[in-house]
Amino acid sequence: MARKLRVWVDPNVCVGNAMCESVAPLVFRMNAQRQSEVADAQGDTEAKILEAAENCPVSAIFVEDEVTGERLFP
Ligand code: SF4
Predict the structure, then answer these.
(1) DSSP track, 8-68
(2) Looking at the whole model, is its pTM more than 0.85?
(3) What pLDDT is stored for residue 73 in this prediction?
(4) All domains in the chain, ordered by first residue
(5) In this predicted structure, what is the pLDDT of residue 2?
């Protein structure tokens, strides 16, 4: 079974280019302030979520194992 992830976006860093939403649209969505928010941290595979985090131009996305607290990105 896939491990459960904790995923969040730092609103002080996000520049709102929606790259993460285009990679994993069920996980990330743009809010009214044109910033990304996590809609569902379980909305896609770990690989896709990490791909979204890696492709964020300002490294605003953080990913951890929810159970162990292991930092998976950055
Ligand atoms: S890719 Fe990064 S900067 Fe772009 S919307 Fe997502 S979190 Fe914000």
Answers:
(1) EE-TTT-----HHHHH-TTTEEE-TTS-EEES-TTSS-HHHHHHHHHH-TT--EEEEETTT
(2) yes
(3) 97
(4) 5-73 (3.30.70.20)
(5) 83
